[in-house]
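Chapter review: from sequence to fold.
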Amino acid sequence: MFNYFVLSLNKKEFKMNNRRKFLKTACKPIVLAALGIPLIEACSSEDDSSNTDIRNNNQSVQNSGRNQLEINLDDDRFKDLKQIGGWLNFTAENILLVRISDEEIRVFDNACPHQGARNRWSFDGSNFTCSNHNNSFSATCSGSLRCYEANLEGNILTIEF
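The token string follows.
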């Protein structure tokens, strides 16, 4: 009888050890997979085209091989840049433009440094904010956003890439 009791305990202990071993080995990949999918999704560069997309028009935008871009600010599509503090996400050329002063418009790459999103931007007067993750980026050329050289002569903005 005693041997049967010990044998019965050993079977239960063996089953418990097998369960523990299974849970230790099987649960880790399941948990990592469940947590990894949102993490990978958060770092994707999804490009939602629901925002306004300004298309090229030979009369107001001239792009010579992506080395240089000329924009005529008299075009209605660029009316937001007429006032200081005005800004525009020019998705057709993948750039953010912000009017700093009467003589200066700063131009940035519109790809979020964190996630690569190009059309989820807002501007509060000094910082661009990507709504994918709500991180803010300074509108200075020393910030995280890639800044392009821009020259404003009259109503013609020339951007060097």
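Two observations follow directly from the output. The CA atoms of residues 9 and 45 lie 56 Å apart. The chain has two domains: 1-42, 61-160.
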